[in-house]
Amino acid sequence: MTKVAELKGGSFTLSALHLVDGDIHKAADFLKQKVEQAPHFFASAPVVIDVSQAGDSIDFSLLKNKVSEAGVIPVGISGCKATRLQEKAKAAGFAIMNAARQAKATEPVMAPTRIIRTPVRSGQQIYAKNCDLVIMNHVSAGAEVIADGCIHIYGTLRGRAIAGASGQQEAQIFCHNLQPELISIAGNYWLSDNIQEDFWGQNVVISLNENNLNIEHLAL
Hints:
Function: Cell division inhibitor that blocks the formation of polar Z ring septums. Rapidly oscillates between the poles of the cell to destabilize FtsZ filaments that have formed before they mature into polar Z rings. Prevents FtsZ polymerization.
Subunit structure: Interacts with MinD and FtsZ.
Keywords: Cell cycle, Cell division, Septation
Strand content: 25-35%
CATH class of the largest domain: Mainly Beta
GO biological process, one term: cell morphogenesis
CATH topology of the largest domain: Pectate Lyase C-like
Largest sheet: 6 strands, mixed
Protein name: Probable septum site-determining protein MinC
Number of helices: 5
Number of strands: 15
């Protein structure tokens, strides 16, 4: 019998929106600002919404519509333990994300470092799955380099660098000339306007400390 489809497990990077006070309109405005600041990164990106702090009277249909209007794609709900709320979320078209099940996943086996010697041009995306990524050239504005491990850029970073894409908080970004649109480690990100002037255009290392990004000058 000829195969018509296959169902396999996969690993994908999703942003999480934490609905901290149940104010859907305020959260949607926040999302819209982020999409306008970095459209290449956030526009039409899949988002999981954490409602663990949002109370028990959530209008899931309104939440889905407002998040969609902000420019991203709401795919699931996390932090929703009450069966009644889960049923309402499902009725609105959300998947129920099980964080506990994700936490039990085995650590991926790291592969050899991926090395890119040519410039990464605008519109390109490079992904180093289960390994570190070394870029021996420049990363142009509008380009994106992603690694489950660390990222080393021996040129100018003008695009986006996303390390620890599968949640590895020990991942770091090493860059010889920092001028990015966005930097991210394990889902924690900064846009260009978050980076202090002292580090702009400098040789730096970026790490994660208690879920906060940290930038330090890197001695040559």
